[in-house]
């Protein structure tokens, strides 16, 4: 590729980048002429030692990683030590399959199983293949694949990035990330946004670009230029300058140009996240995901352990609100201590509050810990349940929460039925929060982990906006606030639309708050309402976005 070439992927982390391309080394494949295994016991011992070395390496990375990244790396180490995986490999070795071929085949069988489960478990496919790649490399006498040491600021390209790789990157040396695979809610997308690194996924052809080639790209719109001209580089640099200038004015509380309040909140998952977010100009927490306390454990965390965590998070935010989502686990995020057995379609199974209504001991312990943390701090604690579908479920949960003295109780609206019947559901609770990621996958019948369905998972989809409007209308009629805590809230353009639809707060990764604050400050509530109407009247996500951009102040183009 000697001349300029432009193509598109899916932008998942806003910002621009220009720099030399560094391609993540590809993992070696099992040799086509690999000999059959003649000593299964010796081969199994060797694989066991290699998998243990891989696990130890991931744990070493975890020890140096942030608290939010540490559980992801530790989960990879647990996968490497999974006795079920080793048993599957051993069975293949006993049948005479070559050593690396046995590892590869066993892992792929596990990946097929995880992918079929959907949700959280489908996300683990990348983790497991990363373990396989590291093991195969060691078995054939090569260095483990992955991100090389970045000796100069560079743009990183890969087929996909395992969490073990993404979690170790910094914005100082990694100017941007481009992957051929992945999706809007992949580990790469989420961690890149948290780190403030521009990123594009689903960029077919990026691996055909020679290492060292200068690449320029926009992580907001997903446009990538290979060998850009000086004029194209200057244009991108100018856009970066304009974006930085626009964000420089983004301080204070969230509000429209005419003063309509729109609280801007942070999404967090760990105590480390809480301290980092509390130091930023956010108005509290709109989503505290509590899953990290529960996942990858053999036993349930104790009430005392949970109380200590919740208390520390509440203290970090002082008088600012903290909205806690109770455990969102189940068939698609199975817990070792709460396995309800296999299900035909886990994404539509016993997850979220449905699990809590079966395993009341788990939910009761969590609520007891939250109540204790509330009593210890007197903080503005608000507790909400995930995956609520009916008014009866909302009543059941609200009674449990209020019986423990927690004054503010809410529900997640991530099922279309809950959006359609939001008036009734909100009758018994104090607030609702829209989980746009799940709400979209259920509205469009498209697995949000399947990158190939990216067009259906675009949050600008008018059908999703219609469903959100229904939920907000119910909130308006009941006088109860409906917020957003899904990824859609962090898009500056969509934030304007959501404001116009009647959303009362927006929660997002802290790195996205300044751009959203700036976009809101440049537009009146009436303009936001007009934008919402135009987006809903569109026939496609791209048409909806274009309509809003056309109506917006020029500053919005620099923020997207």
Observed structural traits:
single chain, 560 residues, alpha/beta, Glucose Oxidase, domain 1, Enzyme I, Chain A, domain 2, TIM Barrel, 3 domains, 8-stranded mixed beta sheet, 8-stranded parallel beta sheet
Secondary structure elements and pairings:
Layout: E1 5-8, E2 10-13, E3 16-23, H1 40-64, H2 70-80, H3 83-94, H4 99-117, H5 119-139, E4 154-158, H6 163-166, E5 174-179, H7 187-195, E6 199-201, E7 214-218, E8 223-226, H8 230-248, E9 264-268, H9 271-278, E10 284-289, H10 303-317, E11 321-325, H11 353-358, H12 360-377, E12 381-385, H13 391-403, E13 408-413, H14 416-420, H15 422-426, E14 431-434, H16 436-444, H17 462-478, E15 482-484, H18 492-501, E16 506-508, H19 513-521, H20 525-537, H21 541-551, H22 555-559
Parallel strand pairs: 3-4, 4-5, 5-6, 9-10, 9-16, 10-11, 11-12, 12-13, 13-14, 14-15
Antiparallel strand pairs: 1-8, 2-6, 3-7, 7-8
Helix pairs in contact: 1-2, 1-3, 1-5, 2-5, 3-4, 4-5, 9-10, 10-12, 17-20, 18-19, 18-20, 20-21
Summarize the structure.
The protein is of the alpha/beta class. Helices cover 47% and strands 14% of the residues. Helix 6 links the parallel strand 4 (154-158) and strand 5.
Overall 3D form: globular
CATH superfamily of the largest domain: Phosphoenolpyruvate-binding domains
Strand order of the largest sheet: 1-8-7-3-4-5-6-2
The structure class reads alpha/beta
> How many β-strand runs?
16
- How many domain units? 3
Low-confidence parts, pLDDT < 50 over ≥5 residues?
A: none
Number of helices: 22
Main beta-sheet annotation? 8 strands, mixed
Helix coverage percent = 40-55%
The termini sit apart by: 28 Å
CATH architecture of the largest domain: Alpha-Beta Barrel
CATH class of the largest domain: Alpha Beta
CATH topology category name of the largest domain: TIM Barrel
Global Rg: 24 Å
């Amino acid at each position: 590729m000697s001349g300029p070439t432009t193509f598109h992927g899916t932008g998942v982390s806003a910002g621009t980048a220009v720099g030399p391309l560094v391609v993540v080394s590809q993992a070696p494949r099992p040799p086509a002429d690999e000999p059959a295994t003649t000593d299964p016991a010796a081969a199994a011992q060797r694989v066991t030692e290699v998998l243990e070395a891989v696990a130890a390496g991931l744990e070493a990375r975890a020890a140096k990683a942030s608290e939010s990244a540490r559980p992801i790396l530790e989960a990879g180490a647990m996968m490497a030590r999974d006795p079920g995986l080793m048993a599957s490999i051993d069975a293949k070795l006993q049948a005479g399959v070559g050593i690396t071929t046995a590892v590869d085949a066993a892992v792929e069988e596990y990946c097929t199983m995880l992918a079929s489960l959907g949700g959280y478990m489908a996300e683990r496919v990348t983790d497991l293949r990363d373990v396989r790649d590291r093991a195969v490399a060691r078995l054939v006498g090569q260095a483990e694949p992955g991100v090389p040491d970045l000796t100069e600021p560079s743009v990183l390209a890969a087929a996909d990035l395992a969490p073990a790789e993404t979690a170790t990157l910094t914005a100082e040396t990694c100017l941007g990330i481009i992957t051929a695979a992945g999706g809007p809610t992949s580990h790469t997308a989420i961690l890149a946004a948290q780190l403030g690194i521009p990123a594009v996924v689903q960029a077919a052809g990026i691996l055909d670009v020679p290492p060292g080639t200068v690449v320029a790209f926009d992580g907001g719109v997903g446009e990538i230029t290979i060998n850009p001209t000086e004029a194209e580089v200057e244009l991108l640099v100018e856009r970066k300058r304009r974006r930085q200038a626009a964000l420089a004015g983004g301080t204070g509380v969230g509000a429209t140009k005419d003063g309509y309040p729109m609280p801007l909140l942070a999404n967090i998952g760990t105590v480390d996240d809480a301290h980092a977010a509390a130091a930023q100009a956010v108005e509290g927490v709109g989503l505290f995901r509590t899953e990290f306390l529960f996942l990858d454990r053999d036993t349930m965390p104790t009430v005392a352990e949970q109380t200590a965590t919740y208390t520390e998070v509440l203290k970090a935010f002082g008088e600012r609100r903290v909205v806690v989502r109770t455990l969102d686990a189940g068939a698609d995020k199975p817990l070792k201590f709460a396995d309800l057995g296999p299900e035909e379609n886990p994404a539509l199974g016993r997850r979220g509050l449905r699990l809590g209504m079966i395993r009341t001991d788990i939910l009761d312990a969590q609520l007891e810990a939250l109540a204790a943390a509330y009593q210890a701090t007197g903080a503005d604690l608000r507790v909400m349940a995930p995956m609520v579908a009916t008014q009866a479920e909302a009543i059941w949960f609200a009674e449990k929460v209020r019986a423990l003295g927690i004054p503010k109780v809410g529900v997640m609206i991530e099922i279309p039925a809950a959006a359609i019947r939001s008036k009734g559901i909100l009758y018994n609770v104090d607030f609702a929060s829209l989980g746009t990621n799940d709400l979209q996958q259920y509205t469009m019948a498209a697995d949000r982990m399947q990158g190939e369905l990216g067009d259906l998972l675009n949050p600008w989809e008018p059908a999703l906006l219609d469903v959100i409007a229904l939920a907000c209308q119910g909130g308006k009629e009941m006088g109860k606030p409906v917020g957003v805590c899904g990824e859609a809230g962090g898009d500056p353009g969509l934030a304007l639309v959501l404001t116009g639809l009647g959303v009362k707060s927006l929660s997002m990764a802290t790195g996205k708050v300044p751009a959203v604050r700036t976009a809101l400050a440049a537009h009146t509530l009436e303009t936001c309402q007009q934008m919402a109407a135009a987006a809903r009247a569109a026939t496609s996500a791209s048409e909806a976005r274009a309509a809003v951009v056309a109506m917006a102040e020029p500053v919005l183009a620099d923020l997207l």
